[in-house]
């Protein structure tokens, strides 16, 4: 029991600081993209839309928590920092990848990001908003539903914002199908992993207590 009391606040503080640092870095990159658009890596890639959507994506959980989540004390004892970190990382990593030109210079980077970042996004959304008592099958279906829907919305946004007017239109169909498949698979894996982690947590508490 002593070990749990000593380590849990440290772990929570570490996740909190990581989430806050991720937000600071994200907004710093957005600010520099606004000031120096030629150096941002997102020029010609719906930069205006990104400058609007990315802050919203990173702040949706804090805004929801401030307006509504705090009243649900039976579900949350404190602000869900792990979920906040997971919901912030996709926007930050995408901006870093564009700033370093990884999407255009590393052949596998775009595919990897659709798989990994959709996993982060789905895990964060489930951790923040899904009920805690879902079965494995329902968790998988919810992860698939959220991940596939988010992937479709993203691809539609990309098409409207810049793909239809860019040279990428020639390969857009194949690329979009691959992105949808990878994003959906990443979301499904995230849901299954999250189910395992959240179900294993009570046994970890028991082992420490004994």
Description of the structure:
By secondary structure, the chain is mainly alpha-helical. The chain has one domain (2-209). The chain contains seven helices and no strands. It has helices at residues 2-35, 47-67, 81-99, 102-105, 109-129, 136-161, 172-209. α1 (2-35) runs antiparallel to α2 (47-67), α1 (2-35) packs parallel to α3 (81-99) and α3 (81-99) packs antiparallel against α5 (109-129). The longest helix is centred in the last third of the chain and has 38 residues, at 172-209.
C-alpha termini separation? 7 Å
Strand content: under 5%
The averaged pLDDT comes out at 85
Instruction: Supply Rg.
Output: 19 Å
Give the biggest sheet: none
Q: Estimate the global geometry from the Cα principal axes.
A: globular
Approximate helicity band: over 70%
User: How many structural domains can be distinguished in the coordinates?
Assistant: 1
Order of helices and strands: HHHHHHH
Helix segment tally: 7
Secondary-structure blueprint:
Elements: H1 2-35, H2 47-67, H3 81-99, H4 102-105, H5 109-129, H6 136-161, H7 172-209
Helix pairs in contact: 1-2, 1-3, 2-3, 3-5, 5-6, 5-7, 6-7
């Amino acid at each position: 029991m002593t070990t749990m009391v000593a380590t849990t606040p440290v772990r929570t503080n570490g996740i909190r600081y990581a989430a806050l640092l991720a937000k600071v870095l994200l907004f710093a990159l957005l600010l520099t993209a606004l000031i120096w658009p030629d150096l941002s890596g997102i020029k010609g890639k719906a930069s205006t839309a990104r400058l609007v959507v990315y802050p919203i994506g990173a702040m949706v959980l804090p805004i929801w928590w401030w307006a509504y989540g705090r009243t649900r004390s039976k579900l949350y004892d404190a602000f869900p920092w792990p979920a906040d970190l997971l919901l912030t990382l996709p926007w930050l990593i995408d901006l870093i990848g564009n700033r370093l030109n990884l999407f255009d210079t590393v052949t596998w980077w775009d595919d990897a990001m659709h798989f990994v970042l959709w996993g982060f996004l789905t895990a964060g959304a489930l951790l923040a908003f899904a009920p805690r008592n879902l079965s494995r099958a329902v968790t998988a279906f919810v992860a698939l539903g959220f991940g596939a829907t988010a992937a479709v919305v993203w691809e539609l946004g990309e098409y409207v914002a810049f793909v239809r007017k860019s040279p990428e239109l020639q390969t857009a169909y194949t690329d979009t199908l691959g992105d949808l498949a990878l994003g959906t698979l990443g979301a499904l894996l995230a849901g299954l992993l999250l189910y395992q982690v959240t179900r294993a947590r009570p046994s970890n508490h028991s082992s420490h207590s004994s």
